[in-house]
Design a protein that fits this description.
- The complex is a heterodimer of chains A (about 300) and B (about 240).
- In chain A, the strands form three sheets. Chain A has a six-stranded mixed beta sheet with strand order 6-7-8-3-9-10, sandwiched between helices. A four-stranded antiparallel beta sheet of chain A has the order 2-1-4-5, covered by helices on one side.
- Chain A is elongated.
- With about 300 residues, chain A is an alpha/beta fold.
- Chain A has ten helices and 14 strands.
- Chain B is α/β, with parallel strands linked by helices.
- Chain B has helices spanning about 45-50, 75-80, 95-105, 110-125, 140-150, 170-185, 195-200, 220-225, 230-244, and strands at about 5-15, 20-30, 35-40, 60-65, 65-70, 80-85, 155-160, 190, 205-210, 210-215.
- In chain B, the strands form two sheets. A six-stranded mixed beta sheet of chain B has the order 6-7-8-3-9-10, sandwiched between helices. A four-stranded antiparallel beta sheet of chain B has the order 2-1-4-5.
- Chain B starts with a strand and ends with a helix.
- Classes of the chains: A alpha/beta (about 300), B alpha/beta (about 240).
- The interface between A and B is medium-sized, with 34 and 36 residues.
C-alpha cells in the first residue's frame, strides 16, 4: 500500500532522512519507532505531500507523493504530532469543517468514528482549545478519519499521554484497522512496538531494522540476564566494571545484563558481585524485549 | 530520619466550582527520589505549580525547602530547581551562554557563576563545544545540560516535569543515572513521568486520580499490595478501577 524507496531529505547541512526504504502492506498497522530527531516526522510529511524529498520516490497505492499530491491528500488521513485543529471552533464545528472540505458529511461516515467520537460528543459545543489532552487526541483522530481515508498516518499520537489513555488509543487503532484502513504510526514508546504488525526502527535518519515485533526479538543475538537487588544502582555501577560485560542497562526494578560472548557465566558473575559486597542478588535468564533489541541495535 | 523537604497538609485548589486537587497530604524527604504519577488531568501540574510557588492553594498548608507557599514564595524559588521537556534551553544561545544566563537568573555571584560554569563544562567534556549553539547539539547533551543548569544554584529540591518525554532509551537511562547521582548528594528529586518503568526507579511514588492521591508507597510495596508484576499494572489497575 505504501512504497518508500530510497528517500533522503536534508535541512541545510543536517541529513534528516538517509536513504530510507519501507514498504507497508495493505491493512497493516506499521510502527515507526525512534526518538526525537530520528526523522519520523520528516518521513510522514513527505508521505502526506507536505514536503518534497531531495531524492528517492514514495507512492501510496498507485499515487506518487510528489506528482499526484492532490489525489494523495484525498486518500490519506493525517494526524500531526502537534494539535492542529481550530482551537476557537467547537468540537462539532471542527469535525464538520473537515467533513465538508473532503466533500462528505459527519452523517455519512459516522459509523467509522462512532466509537471514538462518542467519548467527546457530550462536549460537542465546547471549543477545541478547551478540551483536555485525551479529548483533543480523540477529536483529532475523528477529524483525520471523517473522510474514510485508505491510509491513516499518525505522528506520535501518544506522546505525553498517560499509560491508561495510551492503551485505550491502541485499542481504537485496532478497531480502525478492522475497517480496512492501513495505519502508519510513529511513537517514541518502545512498548507500543509490540502492538504493531511490523515496525521499523529509525535513528538519526537511518533505518536500523524492519521486522515483526516477534522477529526483532528473535534476532536478538545474545543471552540476557535479569539481575535484581535491593541496591540496584550499586550493582549497575559494579557490573559496568566487570571484564566480561557487554551491556548493562536499567529496566525498572532490574538490570538487564549481557556478556561479550553469547552465553553468560552466572556463577562467575555472582562471585564477582559477592566480592563487591552484593550478596543478595537474584539472577534469571530472560526473554529479551523490544527495548533490549532497540538498545542493542543502537549500540551497533 | 531524614529531614522533610516537602510537607503538604490538606492541600486543596479550586478553580471556580471545579476542585482540581482535593486534600493532598504527603511528605518528601531529603535525598528522596519521589515519583509523582497520575493520568492526564489528574491534577499533577496544578500541584507542582503550587509546590514551586507559582500558584497559591485555596486551602491547606504547604512547606517546601523550609518555606511557606503563601508568604515566602521568593525564598522558595531560590531554593528549588525546575526542568521540563517542554521548557528548557534557549536554542539560539550557546551552551556557555545558557549556563551563564540561567545562573544569573538564579542569582549566582560573578565569581561563583564563573567557577560553576567551568566546572559544568569540564564535567561533561564540553570544553571544545562550549560555544556551540544548543540547536546544534544532540538531544542527550541538551538533556544533561538542562538538568545541570537547573541544579547550578545548589537547590534543595529539583522538580522534573516529564523530563524524558520523547527521548531515546539510552539517553533516558543516562538521565536517570544523573538523577541517582544528585539524589546521592542529598538533593531531593520530585519527578513526573508517563514511563512506568521509570516509576520503578523512584524511592517512593504517589499516584493521583481526579485530584486525590489514591496510592503512595515504594514501588515494591505498591506492586505487592495491588498484586501486580510491575508499575504499569499498578497504574492501570488504579486508573481503570477509579472509572467504575
Amino acid at each position: 500500500m505504501i512504497w518508500i524507496d530510497n528517500i533522503s531529505k536534508s535541512y541545510g547541512e543536517r541529513l534528516a532522512l538517509d536513504s530510507v526504504s519501507i514498504q507497508v502492506d495493505e491493512n497493516e498497522i506499521f510502527g515507526l519507532i525512534g526518538p526525537d530527531g530520528a526523522g519520523k516526522t520528516s518521513l510522514f510529511r513527505i508521505l502526506c505531500s507536505l514536503i518534497v524529498p531531495d531524492s528517492g520516490k514514495a507512492r501510496i497505492g498507485n499515487l506518487d507523493v510528489v506528482k499526484d499530491y492532490r489525489k494523495i491528500r484525498k486518500i490519506i488521513g493525517y494526524m500531526p504530532g502537534r494539535f492542529s485543529l481550530y482551537q476557537d471552533l467547537t468540537v462539532e464545528e471542527n469535525l464538520e469543517f473537515f467533513a465538508t472540505i473532503f466533500g462528505t458529511s459527519i452523517k455519512e461516515n459516522y459509523d467509522l468514528i462512532r466509537d471514538i467520537y462518542i467519548h467527546i460528543e457530550p462536549f460537542k459545543n465546547r471549543k477545541a482549545g478547551e478540551l483536555s489532552g485525551g479529548m483533543k487526541q480523540k477529536l483529532a483522530l475523528s477529524c483525520a478519519l471523517i473522510h474514510r481515508p485508505e491510509v491513516l498516518i499518525l505522528d506520535e499520537p501518544t506522546t505525553g499521554v498517560d499509560a491508561v489513555s495510551r492503551k485505550e488509543f491502541w485499542e481504537m487503532l485496532s478497531r480502525i484497522r478492522e475497517e480496512g484502513i492501513t495505519i502508519m504510526v510513529s511513537t517514541p514508546y518502545m512498548d507500543e512496538a509490540q502492538l504493531c504488525d511490523r515496525v521499523a526502527f529509525l535513528q538519526n535518519g537511518k533505518l536500523l531494522t524492519i521486522n515483526t515485533p516477534e522477529g526483532i526479538i528473535q534476532a536478538y543475538p545474545k543471552d540476557i540476564l535479569s539481575i535484581q537487588s535491593d541496591n540496584l544502582y550499586g550493582v549497575l555501577m559494579d557490573v559496568r566494571n566487570y571484564p566480561l560485560v557487554h551491556s548493562s542497562l536499567l529496566f525498572g526494578h532490574e538490570v538487564h545484563y549481557t556478556e561479550k560472548g553469547k552465553s553468560i557465566n552466572q556463577y562467575q558473575l555472582k562471585e564477582y558481585l559477592k566480592r563487591k559486597g552484593h550478596a543478595n542478588v537474584e539472577m534469571n535468564l530472560m526473554k529479551p524485549g523490544i527495548e533490549d533489541s532497540f538498545l542493542e541495535l543502537m549500540k551497533e | 530520619m531524614h529531614a522533610k523537604h516537602i510537607v503538604v497538609r490538606g492541600l486543596t485548589k479550586k478553580f471556580g466550582d471545579f476542585t482540581a486537587i482535593d486534600q493532598l497530604n504527603f511528605d518528601v524527604f531529603s535525598g528522596e527520589i519521589f515519583g509523582f504519577l497520575g493520568a492526564n488531568g489528574a491534577g499533577k501540574t496544578t500541584a507542582i505549580k503550587i509546590l514551586c510557588g507559582l500558584s497559591y492553594p485555596s486551602s491547606g498548608e504547604v512547606n517546601v525547602a523550609g518555606f511557606d507557599v503563601y508568604t515566602q514564595t521568593e525564598q522558595l524559588k531560590m531554593n528549588i530547581g525546575y526542568m521540563s521537556q517542554k521548557f528548557s534551553l534557549y536554542e539560539d544561545m550557546t551552551i556557555y551562554e545558557n549556563i551563564r544566563f540561567y545562573g544569573g537568573i538564579y542569582g549566582l555571584g560573578r565569581k561563583e557563576l564563573h567557577a560553576k560554569s567551568e566546572q559544568l563544562i569540564r564535567k561533561f567534556g564540553l570544553v571544545n563545544e562550549r560555544n556551540s549553539l544548543i540547536a546544534d547539539i544532540p538531544q542527550g547533551w541538551k538533556q544533561k545540560i538542562a538538568f545541570s543548569i537547573a541544579i547550578l544554584h545548589d537547590p534543595k529540591i529539583i522538580f522534573l516535569d516529564e523530563p524524558t518525554g520523547g527521548v531515546d532509551p539510552i539517553t533516558r537511562r543516562q538521565f536517570w543515572e544523573l538523577i541517582y547521582e544528585v539524589s546521592g548528594n542529598g538533593i531531593t528529586v520530585f519527578v513526573t513521568t508517563h514511563y512506568m518503568d521509570e516509576a520503578e526507579y523512584c524511592h517512593r511514588v504517589s499516584i493521583m486520580d481526579e485530584g486525590k492521591i489514591v496510592a503512595i508507597d515504594t514501588p515494591n510495596n505498591l506492586k505487592s499490595s495491588f498484586g501486580a508484576a510491575n508499575m504499569d499494572e499498578v497504574f492501570v489497575k488504579i486508573a481503570r478501577g477509579a472509572e467504575k
